[in-house]
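# step 3/5: fold
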Amino acid sequence: MNRQCTRSGCKGRAVATLTYAYADSTAVLGPLALQATPGCYDLCATHASKMTAPQGWEIIRLADPESLVPEPDEDDLLALANAVREVGFSDNPASNLAGDPSSVVELGRRGHLRVIQDAQRNV
């Protein structure tokens, strides 16, 4: 989820979604929605923390905007560290990097990470 803040001129990464409940005169600010939705506004941490509502409206903050900035997933960091370690400790690291991209067999996916079949072993 790499969406930009919807505020004019802001190029910050969105971390929160603002939704207006007009019937209740309420603005709801919560974690970034999974998908961009019409009528909802994605905000960066700066704009989320400074967000105000019209006079007479209530603001419901589902989370502190500072805590909405995503931290790297530990699984992602471990997968990256293991991949680097594997290539670094191999006998011939250059041969591990070369290969035909069309021969890659994807076994699974989690977010932006992929599990691919080892070319030397059949998993």
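# step 4/5: annotate
The chain has two domains: 16-68, 74-116.
# step 5/5: archive (pending)
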